[in-house]
Amino acid sequence: MQYIRAISLDLDDTLWALGPAIERAEQAAHAWFARHYPQVVARFSIEDMRAMRRRVVADFPGREHDLPLLRRAAFNRLAREAGYSDDPGEAAFAAFQQVRNQVTPFADVGPALERLARRVPLVALTNGTADLAAIGLRAYFTAVVTAVDIGAAKPDRRAFHGACERLGIEPGYVAHAGDDPHLDVAGARAAGLHAVWVNRAGHPWPDGLEPAAHVVADLGALADLLGA
Ligand SMILES: [Mg+2]
Fold this sequence. Notes:
alpha/beta, Rossmann fold, Four Helix Bundle (Hemerythrin (Met), subunit A), six-stranded parallel β-sheet, binds magnesium ion
């Protein structure tokens, strides 16, 4: 793949495991409410908070991609329903984010990003709310593009084209690598990028989806594939 001039990288579950971080962040938000808005935790469990987060999506048609907005709105709604008359969503989301960014990148990530960034510019393309600076990986990336920036989430082709535009490189010269067969691989392929499936856990490929042209087990293998 010597013709590749830039690499777009998914973040969550590609550079670190997301599930445990979200779980700890939800606990942190719940603990924040216990300190500052105790009626919220008297009434709502962490599972209730998750359900509220899913429920508020209906109130924001066309904003399904905007996770920070949805999380803040859910926190506000919890406070209102518990009898408070102010909107603590911003502060509660900050408590959530602080723990959400306490992730440990997989062991191969640092050395591989070093190799990849020496060969071509890297752009981070995420539907999530990770803060690469807080995580300590920002220096490897030329640009960071989020669903909020673009106004659309992967697999929407606008997300991929937005990442390419930020680097000024045509999709046909860009490889996108990520863990999700639908969001990352099928999405990137439909947008005209070269898709690479990062399959760390050895998952089976989903039935009925056109197979990925390139599969790697980690980012070290991605650097090998791209001749970095
Ligand atoms: Mg991912």
